[in-house]
From TrEMBL:
Cofactor note: Binds 1 Mg(2+) ion per subunit.
Residues annotated for 2-[(2R,5Z)-2-carboxy-4-methylthiazol-5(2H)-ylidene]ethyl phosphate binding in this entry: T134, T135, S136, G163
Record's keyword terms, sorted: Magnesium, Metal-binding, Thiamine biosynthesis, Transferase
Catalyzed reaction equations: 2-(2-carboxy-4-methylthiazol-5-yl)ethyl phosphate + 4-amino-2-methyl-5-(diphosphooxymethyl)pyrimidine + 2 H(+) = thiamine phosphate + CO2 + diphosphate; 2-[(2R,5Z)-2-carboxy-4-methylthiazol-5(2H)-ylidene]ethyl phosphate + 4-amino-2-methyl-5-(diphosphooxymethyl)pyrimidine + 2 H(+) = thiamine phosphate + CO2 + diphosphate; 4-methyl-5-(2-phosphooxyethyl)-thiazole + 4-amino-2-methyl-5-(diphosphooxymethyl)pyrimidine + H(+) = thiamine phosphate + diphosphate
Annotated binding of Mg(2+), by residue: D71, D90
Name recorded for this polypeptide: Thiamine-phosphate synthase
GO biological process: thiamine biosynthetic process; thiamine diphosphate biosynthetic process
CDD domains the UniProt entry points to: TMP_TenI
Keyword Magnesium tagged: yes
Residues noted as binding 4-amino-2-methyl-5-(diphosphooxymethyl)pyrimidine in the record, renumbered to the chain: Q38, V39, R40, A41, K42, N70, T108, K137
CC cofactor: Mg(2+)
Pfam families: TMP-TENI
């Protein structure tokens, strides 16, 4: 099945959320303009991940923010999340789209060829990176640099990830990124809500 047109639902600023983060801040993050939350808890089994995702959904229920689940289509469907983000070793995008035609689906990509493949399989957006060096996830490939985004533009929206903070947003947007996904740029900042507000301003309209 081909991709359903979900472009208006792709977040501009996604904050990745784990079991270690302060979920009480989520409503404030959404209020300042974070329009996507991706739940990623790599060590959690299905039951614990469902519970965590339900907490995130509850925290932003009265906002326009989208909630996606990293890796686990089954969890996303079970708890009524808005979407799923799939990496290279996860369920194939085409299978996820067949099972969940209405879900927002993202795919991790590092080149235009991978973006084209993901789009053909039904992905709504490509999580592109890591753009810069990051310490938020172990074992990631070497950073691509913002210039790697430009050849991949024009297929589906690119959401840049990897080492992004407010000071680096302009470079990735200029290179063609539709949006950004952030971990440390929010959670490791002394003022996570203030950092999110700066990121939203840097992304612009």
């Amino acid at each position: 099945m081909g991709r359903v047109d979900h472009l208006d639902r792709v977040p501009r600023l996604t904050c990745l959320v784990s079991e270690r983060d302060d979920l009480t801040l989520l409503p404030a993050l959404a209020e300042v303009g974070v329009d996507g939350f991706q739940v990623r808890a790599k060590t959690y089994g299905g039951r614990a991940l469902c519970a965590l995702t339900e907490r995130v959904l509850g925290a932003v229920a009265f906002t326009d923010a989208r909630v996606l689940v990293n890796d686990r289509l089954d969890v996303a469907l079970a708890v009524g999340a808005d979407g799923v983000h799939l990496g290279a070793s996860d369920l194939p995008v085409a299978e996820a789209r067949r099972v969940a035609p209405d879900l927002l689906i993202g795919a991790t990509c590092r080149s235009r060829a991978e973006v084209l493949r993901a789009a053909g399989d039904g992905a709504d957006y490509a999580g592109f990176g890591p753009v810069f060096a990051t310490t938020s996830k172990a074992g990631v490939p070497s950073p691509l640099g913002p210039e790697a985004l430009t050849p991949a533009v024009g297929v589906i929206p690119l959401v840049a990830i990897g080492g992004i903070d407010a000071a680096r947003v302009a470079a990735v947007v200029a290179a063609g990124a539709f949006g950004v996904a952030v971990i440390g740029g929010i959670w490791r900042h002394p003022d996570p809500v203030g950092a999110a507000k700066e990121l939203v301003a840097a992304i612009g309209g």
